[in-house]
Write a structure and sequence with these properties.
Layout: E1 4-8, H1 13-24, E2 30-33, H2 42-45, E3 53-56, E4 59-62, H3 64-74, H4 85-111, H5 114-124, H6 132-151, H7 158-176, H8 189-204, H9 208-213, H10 215-223
The chain binds glutathione.
């Protein structure tokens, strides 16, 4: 039997993406969480200092996209990559949009709002000594905010970011009308990548209400 360990944060959309891929393929796996100051160990797993990292039969793979490709290659049953080149191209574009653009909305909605941040830190410190929470609060929030500023979205007003997010949700809703999946006739990595970001916004942000208001998106999210 394949030995699979996912190094993760439960609240990371990229780790959620890998869990959904493993679940879709019916592969049993263990998770190792890096809550609280255990996060300091992540640098040993990944030169980029990022999670997810997957250990599979003695091989270590970093980055959700590389992990997805490796799993698809090893376990082609229940494919998540379409056979048609045109659909594969659409899937790649949507996956990149989810990972590189939608992700920043998720970070913004967590780091720029006190209630969401408080909830996030609580989740990130689950199972850890109480004193790690203030440490994480002091170190992690400014780090997130610096990244948001460097990316650009962190210099935008909340009203502007919320309006852009609503427009994206409406567009996604239109895209999904009369369709079961974002690309083609079966679930693909595009569905999993986009849904994993939205699920994390739903988990911690008041913007979850915008998602709940998009009826097609809500219906589709329940199936991904
Ligand atoms: N391109 C990477 C992105 C992974 C990523 O950004 N993970 C975040 C958690 S959601 C992380 O590890 N952040 C820690 C850091 O940047 O220091 C992937 O697809 O796996």
């Amino acid at each position: 039997m394949t030995d699979i360990v996912l190094h993760q944060w439960e609240v990371s959309p990229f780790c959620g993406k890998v869990r959904r891929i493993l679940d879709h393929k019916g592969l049993p796996y263990q998770v190792r969480n890096y809550n609280g100051l255990l996060a300091l160990q992540v640098g040993k797993l990944s030169p980029a200092g990022k999670l997810p990292v997957l250990d599979i039969d003695g091989e270590r793979i970093q980055d959700s996209r590389r992990i997805a490709a490796a799993l698809e290659q090893r376990f082609p049953e229940r494919p998540l990559v379409p056979a048609s080149a045109a659909e594969r191209a659409q899937m790649e574009i949507l996956q990149d949009w989810a990972d590189e653009s939608l992700y920043w909305y998720e970070v913004y909605f967590r780091a720029q709002y006190d209630a969401a941040w408080e909830q996030l830190v609580g989740l990130l410190c689950e199972g850890r000594p109480f004193w790690e929470k203030p440490v994480l609060n002091t170190v992690a929030r400014p780090q997130f905010r610096r990244s948001l500023k460097a990316q650009g979205i962190g210099r935008m007003d909340k009203a502007v970011v919320e309006a852009r997010f609503s427009l994206l949700l409406q567009s996604l809703d239109t895209q999904l009308a009369g369709r079961q999946w974002l690309v083609g006739e079966q679930k693909t990595l595009a569905d999993i990548a986009v849904a994993s970001q939205l699920h994390e916004i739903l988990r911690t942000s008041h913007l979850g209400a915008v998602i709940a208001g998009a009826t097609q998106v809500s219906r589709w999210l329940q199936t991904v």
